[in-house]
Amino acid sequence: MPRIAVQLEPQHAEYLNIRRAVFECEALGVDIIYNWDHFFALSGDRDGKHFEAWTMLASWAEITERVEIGCLVTCNSYRNPNLLADMARTVDHISEGRLILGIGSGWFQRDYDEYGYEFGTAAGRLRDLDRNLPIIKARLADLNPPPKRSIPILVGGGGEKVTLRITAQHANIWHGFFSTTNHDLYAHKNRVLDRWCTRIGRDPSSIERSVGVSGRRIDLADDLVAAGAQQVVLSLDGPSYDTGPVRDWLAWRDGL
Predict the structure, then answer these.
(1) What is the model's pTM?
(2) CB–CB of 154/175 below 8 Å?
(3) Strands 153-156 and 173-176, how do they pair?
């Protein structure tokens, strides 16, 4: 049965609005609640209200009881990999073992420029991600106390030559950010990931397949599953965080 996740975009809202949305999504029966790792709004007023991701996750870990939580996705460039591992372990303990460590190579140049990070090139950022994931995993294994569970690692992105190879090597969940109206493309990316898994000797079924979709496109539900989706992520924008479409997806999930 596919899992239903919600990404609460941490923009254009007071934190109390976000907090209420977290409570409501958990009460409705959502499986996972994500935020994102940016410092500025990505849509609407680009200088609008915005909050930092990992501080927020620590709060979510305290106020929720059942749902898994995570960032879709953490930017690898913004934090030392050893520090990120320690942050993840700490939030995992606060949540009693419900954290998903989502991570990607980064892309939003304004974040980099205004916070003093070197933007570099897309290829360089992917090399950094490839280098840092083993460091993160090694630090997680060395921390005292260790995480409450083996923290699932989610890698976001669809690059077939590098990102999906990194996913096959290190991830427990793969998330595709591209348009889900093209089912053939999503199915193709899944097949490419399968081939990378085979090449490195990993069982392709050990990686959960996730995809983002507009909450209003419930008409796509069966097609996404046929294309390989095992987790569907619905994005909710602030300040209202309308959960009406989420209810439709949960009813579809529960009816399977």
Answers:
(1) 0.96
(2) yes
(3) parallel
